[in-house]
Amino acid sequence: MYKHAKLGDLVVTQDMGLASLLVKKGVHVLSPRGTIITDEQMDTILYNRYVSAKLRREGTFLKGPKAFSKEDKKKFQQSLQKILSNHEGIH
What we know:
- By secondary structure, the protein is mainly α.
- It has 3 helices and 3 strands.
């Protein structure tokens, strides 16, 4: 999928490794919980991902993600609408 995405496309993913590749290509990345992922956030996101993986390897078990909520659905809808409205009429 990464190879097919191009400038201006929209991808919904929770894979931050994939997200980091996509934002560098000018792809809009949205998490399933409605967070718009930007290139400016990627260093922090990837560092946190690295630290979490390291802790898991060392035997520290971190909690999984919280349950998907109505607020998450609402935030996703609002973020999706924001992205789409910013590009309305562009073909």
